[in-house]
Write a structure and sequence with these properties.
heterodimer, A: 139 residues, alpha+beta, Yope Regulator, Chain: A, six-stranded antiparallel sheet, 37% strand, B: alpha+beta, ten-stranded antiparallel sheet
Chain lengths: 139, 537
């Protein structure tokens, strides 16, 4: 586990914030379970690096719903146009393929309140899609 | 409330678009009623517009920039019907050209009506009057040249028999002696007048240029005749017909607002968003109500059609027998008008701001350009402030940068020029924001605009078009989104065509310049890879 992720996990788990979360620290990522009313949504937090971006970024991924229908793909691409935060992406490494909500934050100088806001936004977006498409709280 | 007794007129002041106050307008907005706004972003932008406007006015002193306060803001939509009627004027003219023996089409003309001879190309709606000529089939004939009666040449009109009077001696065959200039005497070596040594006192000498007082005519080289001009020496003329078609467009516009504010809103016709267009072309130039109903609110259909029909009837009544109305095009454009109440030095005034370039309509209308005295007043004001170490309550850096065209009016933080410096990129102000070019090339251009969400929070929107979106690439595009460090691939529409774009949105007020520069760099690099490897093509 990278030192950065370790420190991030500590800060997120410290509880000096209002967002109801549970933090699980894994080998290469942090798994955060966000409580959204009666529903829960998981957000994976990991560290990525991009040469073009000139450094590291914190990656947030939250699973929204299975993506079996091609109409869902078109709809997701159109939704991406107006999204204020995050992006819908197709993950084909799973069976069936799933729709994830992903978002990145520049790692250098990242502020915990900003990161928590991003985590909550990603969780809310993924959960709202899941609610609309699947109905049940699966992810 | 707006004073109805005075007419508000605009001056030449314009800004680029600030989406906070002039969002992209859609037909649905036309049914909005007038509403008051207390949105801080709208008030801030409007105050900045008034500040920028004051720089161009001699009737507003330098202190206005610091002290003006927007006290009331209300908004209503406006619409403008722009009616264009295409008028085609036609004329059948007979022309002549020298006939050199080619084949001619002697069949009779199929008609003498120029509108029947050449099919009408309706719907061009040129910006300026345009003239096109069409050669007509048939009606051609060969006639003996009227000028030379078939001879091919005519007597030279400069001479008689190929000779003209010598211009040097005027036909006298004698010219003044060049030594004594016709005096017969000149000064000798000792300074006394002596008889001319050349003409021996005769004062003249023989003209060497001519013979018998005449020279050969330069125009006909002595032939005495010249080539007949109309037939170019062929002796015959070829007569043929041509249709001259002149197309012009008569334009009229009618502005409408729900609340009757005292301004001529139609001046904003070219500074508004297009909401819809209907056209009808020759031969049936009547507009279809059924078609308009699909996009225009019902309450506007009747006035729109009434206006269009009135204009068409007016145009038809004004056209001559050689003209035809060949097309009608009706555009509906619209946007928002703001009534802005402001206070300056305990005096309350009002202006109306409207259109995508934020034209300011005031009671005073246009004022003269800044005078030298006004300039000196401003300079002395700033000098006094500088000496007194006075910090004005306004970000003058931003105002000056907007004035000098370096910052978009929506970029109150001057964020993008800062990012441009970090990236060593060139930036250009666009309608809604900026075009940022990473290495000065036309290929690596990112569109940057500042929009506002439903909660009136400023959102920075970055986008770059990746190409036409093919359906079979949709899934692939969605997979890329999981691999991009920043941004996402989205589907956008331009007319009927769908495009893939890579875009990113961030909160304008929260993002740091260094953070944004990293995101832009990543966005450009990823989109370059997608384009170079034709991943979505």
């Amino acid at each position: 586990m990278s030192e950065f992720i370790g420190q991030l996990a500590k800060k997120l788990a410290s509880g000096h914030h209002d967002l109801p979360i549970q933090v699980h620290v894994g080998e290469k990522e942090i798994l955060i379970e966000v409580t959204l009313g009666s529903r829960k949504q998981s957000v994976r937090v990991s560290l990525g690096s991009s040469k073009a971006a000139g450094g590291a970024f914190v990656r947030l991924v939250s699973r929204a719903c299975p993506a079996n229908d091609h109409r869902l793909i078109r709809s997701a691409l159109t939704t991406n146009r107006g999204l204020e935060l995050g992006s819908l992406s197709l993950n084909t490494e799973t069976n069936p393929p799933v729709l994830d909500v992903v978002h990145s934050v520049v790692a250098e100088g990242v502020q915990i309140p900003d990161l928590l806001f991003a985590i909550e936004s990603v969780a809310r977006l993924a959960d709202s899609i899941e609610k609309r498409i699947v109905g049940q709280d699966v992810f | 409330m707006v004073d109805f007794t005075l007419m508000y007129t605009p001056d030449s002041f314009k800004t680029s678009r600030a989406l906070a106050i002039q969002p992209v307008f859609a037909v649905g907005g036309l049914t909005e009623s007038m509403m008051h706004s207390e949105d801080p972003a709208a008030i801030l932008y409007m105050t900045n517009i008034l500040r920028l406007w004051s720089f161009e006015r001699t009737d507003l002193p330098p202190t206005f920039v610091d002290e003006v306060e927007v006290t009331e803001l209300s908004r209503q939509p406006y619409s403008i019907f722009v009616n264009e009627i295409e008028i085609n004027r036609r004329e059948l003219v007979q022309l002549q050209q020298p006939y050199s023996g080619f084949e001619v089409d002697q069949r009779p003309l199929s008609s003498h009506d120029p509108f029947e001879l050449i099919p009408i190309e309706a719907g061009v709606f040129p910006r300026q009057e345009s003239l096109t000529t069409y050669r007509v089939d048939g009606g051609e004939e060969i006639r003996e040249c009227y000028s030379c009666n078939g001879a091919g040449d005519v007597p030279c009109n400069h001479c008689s028999g190929g000779r003209v009077t010598c211009p040097d001696c005027n036909g006298t065959q004698r010219v003044n002696c060049p030594r004594c200039l016709g005096l017969g005497q000149h000064l000798g070596a000792r300074g006394h007048l002596i008889n001319c040594q050349v003409c021996h006192g005769r004062q003249t000498q023989r003209c060497h240029r001519c013979t018998g007082g005449q020279i050969t005519c330069g125009s006909c080289s002595g032939a005495g005749t010249q080539t007949c001009e109309p037939c170019q020496g062929h002796g015959n003329l070829h007569n043929y017909f041509q249709v001259k078609s002149t197309v012009r467009v008569g334009r009229a516009s009618l502005g409408r607002t729900n609340e009757p504010w005292p301004l001529e809103v139609s001046v904003l016709a070219n500074e508004s968003d297009e909401l819809g267009l209907e056209s009808a072309l020759w031969p049936d130039i009547s507009l279809s109500q059924a078609s308009i109903q699909k996009w225009l609110p019902p309450e506007l259909i009747v006035p729109l059609l009434h206006f269009a029909r009135q204009e068409l009837a007016r145009s038809k009544a004004a056209i001559s027998a050689s003209e035809q109305a060949t097309g009608i095009r009706l555009r509906v454009v619209g946007g928002y008008l703001y009534s802005v109440g402001y206070q300056y030095r305990n005096e309350s005034k009002r202006v109306i701001v409207g259109g995508i370039h934020n034209r300011v309509f005031s009671e005073q209308g246009a004022v003269k350009k800044q005078s030298l005295l006004g300039g000196i007043k401003r300079l002395s004001y700033h000098l006094v402030n500088a000496i007194a170490d006075y910090t004005p309550p306004v970000d003058r850096k931003y105002l000056q940068a907007v004035r000098s065209g370096n910052v978009h009016i929506g970029d109150t933080r001057c964020l993008i020029p800062s990012v441009g410096k970090i990236l060593n990129a060139s930036i250009e102000i666009s309608e809604n924001g900026y075009l940022l070019s990473l290495d000065g090339s036309d290929e690596n251009i990112v569109n940057i605009s500042i929009d506002f969400n439903a909660a009136h929070v400023a959102i920075l929107c970055l986008s770059r078009r990746l190409g036409i979106a093919e359906r079979q690439k949709f899934a692939q595009a969605m997979q890329f989104n999981g691999k991009l460090a920043f941004g996402r691939i989205a589907l956008s529409k331009d007319g009927e065509q769908e495009f893939f774009t890579i875009e990113e949105r961030r909160s304008y007020n929260d993002i740091r310049p260094d953070e944004l520069s990293k995101i832009i760099r990543s966005l450009v690099a990823d989109s370059n890879t997608i384009l170079a490897k034709r991943m979505l093509a």
